[in-house]
Specification:
The complex is a heterodimer of chains A (about 210) and B (about 110).
Chain A (H helix, E strand, L loop, with lengths): L1 E3 L2 E2 L16 E2 L4 E3 L2 E2 L5 H17 L8 E12 L2 E12 L15 E5 L2 E7 L9 E2 L1 H11 L11 E4 L2 E4 L13 E3 L4 E6 L7 E4 L3
Parallel strand pairs in A: 4-10, 5-8, 6-9
Antiparallel strand pairs in A: 1-13, 3-4, 6-7, 7-14, 8-9, 11-12, 14-15
Chain B lengths: L1 E4 L9 E2 L15 E3 L2 E6 L1 E5 L3 H4 L10 H9 L4 E5 L3 E5 L7 E5 L2 H4 L5
Parallel strand pairs in B: 5-6
Antiparallel strand pairs in B: 1-4, 3-4, 6-7, 7-8
Classes of the chains: A mainly beta (about 210), B alpha+beta (about 110).
């Protein structure tokens, strides 16, 4: 199911312009990390991602020019009585990354396969600590992902309760009138604990 | 705050379109108007789990799917609801299970969604 949402966020974005040159910043409870570009070394995963990119492009003309692939890495468990080390949930998505106050939206890693951004979210650690990213790393990632997102529309003035208000471009979220949000679909790859068993690819129902 | 533009009525099972098609016929508190767009503050999202029509479940008895968790994570201020078969329930970004599960006819349960 795919939602077409035309959203505008008028909340304040506080951009910290005093970027530190340090690789790691410490705050009260967290260690800030970078959104790192990596190469996926798991050949099985790479081939499955190539398949899903091809499949999505065939089914959805929008995905030919916009959107990215999202991989959520999750912990193990059991699938059909087979002990699982970990599993990869894979789907396409179009959601933007404008709300820097919500760092959960940002991936831990990214790469490119067949010209598409592949964003990797390591959900395994979400229950252990609250992830936060370096400001300069977020800005760099936003610049890299921007060509794959729907275009921003500038809003100069709005009418609210019969009054005309002027918006402040520096202090609002961009408005992306054609933005899509993907809900459901994709595949999950289960990697068995027993390395002798081939990974199991399952089409997602929900 | 999460703002949604005025909606075009009608949607398919695959896509809900919310492109502005002029002023909304009803009045909404806090409505903002700009450049032909009408922005309406929303507090909840709702979508269906249609596979439960064939898999024998109520659509909210399985673990919350990765897409649903990601949507809730992307929009932390929204309350998120699922309409299943004979049940409606909430989910969020932090629980692996659905909660506030209400069984019964959709016609009566939908009034619980807010």
């Amino acid at each position: 199911m795919k939602f077409r949402l035309t959203t505008i966020f008028l909340l304040t974005i506080l951009v910290n312009n005093s970027f530190s040159q340090k690789k790691i910043q410490l705050n009260e409870n967290n260690v800030k990390t970078a959104i790192r570009e990596i190469d996926i070394t798991n050949k099985f995963l790479v081939e499955e991602v190539k398949k899903i990119i091809k499949s999505k492009k065939n089914k959805d003309s929008v995905f030919k020019t916009k959107g990215y692939i999202r991989i959520n890495v999750k912990g193990g468990g059991v699938y059909n009585n087979i002990p699982i080390s970990y599993k990869y949930y894979i789907n396409n998505d179009y959601h933007s990354f404008d709300d820097i106050s919500n760092q959960d939206i940002f991936p831990d890693y990214y790469t490119f396969i067949n010209g598409k951004p592949i964003l990797i979210f390591s959900d395994v650690y979400d229950k252990i600590f609250k992830k936060t990213f370096l400001d300069e790393s977020i800005l760099s990632f936003q610049s890299i992902i921007e060509p794959y997102l729907f275009e921003k529309k500038e809003i100069d003035k709005v009418q609210f309760e019969n009054k005309e208000l002027v918006t402040n471009h520096r202090n609002k979220y961009p408005f992306r009138p054609k933005e899509l949000i993907q809900v459901h679909g994709g595949i999950t790859i289960y990697f068995p604990v027993d390395g002798g068993i081939m990974p199991i690819v399952v089409k997602n129902i929900y | 705050m999460f703002l949604l533009s005025a909606t075009k009525k009608g949607f398919s099972s695959k896509e809900i379109q919310t492109q502005a098609q002029g002023a909304p016929s009803e009045s909404y508190s806090g409505l903002i108007h700009s450049a032909g767009y009408y922005f309406i503050s929303v507090t909840a999202s709702v979508h269906t789990h249609t596979p439960d029509r064939s898999d024998g479940t109520n659509g909210v008895s399985h673990n919350v799917g990765a897409d649903d968790i990601q949507f809730a994570s992307n929009h932390p201020d929204l309350k998120n609801w699922i309409i299943g078969c004979g049940a409606v329930a909430q989910y969020n970004a932090t629980n692996s299970s659905f909660f506030n599960i209400n069984s019964g006819a959709i016609s009566s349960n939908c009034s619980l969604i807010q």
